[in-house]
Design goal:
By secondary structure, this protein is of the alpha+beta class. The chain folds into 2 domains: about 1-50, no CATH class; about 50-215, tt1808, chain A. A hairpin with a 2-residue loop joins strand 11 and strand 12 (about 175). It has helices at about 20-25, 50-70, 120, 135-140, 140-150, 190-195, 205-215; strands at about 15, 35-40, 40-45, 75-80, 85, 90, 95-100, 115, 125-130, 155-160, 165-170, 175. About 30% of the residues are buried.
């Protein structure tokens, strides 16, 4: 079945589809506020969450990574809601993605509307999903997708639980970690405390606290 309009499109679940069907669904002009994934003959067209909790945590986690890089003089290149594709095989659109250190591509990806070609620019070092409604999927099939894309580290931000589930990935597998490998020494407990503080403190207050803590990492 070719997916050619919104009436034939099933969202927020994985469905069987060819690569060509996925491209039609993901590039359809009527589709907005969606994120698109494809892996092993399955696609997921996911409705983007626009709630305040998701937006706050997305902003905060990006600040955590950026502040860590500044304090540690670590080169990073970040992307928000950007697609990364291995043509004909896989595509993902995490909430955040970061190339770190020697993984930063040269030249850097241009500022265009095109998706990031993994075969040209490589796979981002760190992928992050902010999960307010899709926690099980982020832990399951998306996690498998990121393993197959050779992502080095994958974080899931549990918005409701104010927790971070972090995984180190290698050899098409993953294991949970409590301390980041790609941001050496950064404990997930620090990130979780930042999430908790954000419930009662503004961004400046949280960032000032983070700067003090990160200088001690």
């Amino acid at each position: 079945m070719m997916l050619t309009d919104r009436s034939t499109l099933v969202t927020d679940t994985w469905v069987k589809a060819t690569w060509e069907e996925f491209l039609v669904a993901s590039e359809h002009s009527e589709l907005d506020k969606t994120r698109c994934y494809y892996d092993s003959g399955l696609m997921r067209i996911e409705t983007m969450v626009v709630g305040l909790g998701h937006g706050q945590d997305n902003t905060l986690i990006s600040q955590v990574v950026s502040l860590y890089a500044i304090v540690n003089n670590l080169r990073i290149k970040g992307f928000t809601n950007s697609s990364f594709r291995r043509e004909g095989e896989k595509e993902c659109q995490p909430d955040m993605a970061f190339y770190i250190g020697d993984d930063i591509p040269t030249p850097m990806p241009p500022k265009t509307t095109a998706v990031g070609d993994i075969d040209t620019y490589g796979t981002p070092t760190l992928m992050i999903e902010v999960a307010s409604t899709s926690l099980n999927d982020d832990l399951g099939r998306k996690r498998l997708l990121y393993e197959r894309l050779n992502v080095q580290e994958y974080w899931i931000v549990d918005v409701l639980g104010m927790a971070i589930l972090a995984f180190e990935m290698s050899n098409f597998g993953s294991r949970q970690i409590q301390v980041s490998r790609v941001l050496p020494g950064l404990k997930m407990s620090i990130v979780e405390e930042a999430l908790q503080r954000s419930q009662t403190e503004d961004d400046t207050e949280v960032s000032q606290w983070l700067m003090q803590v990160l200088r001690q990492v």
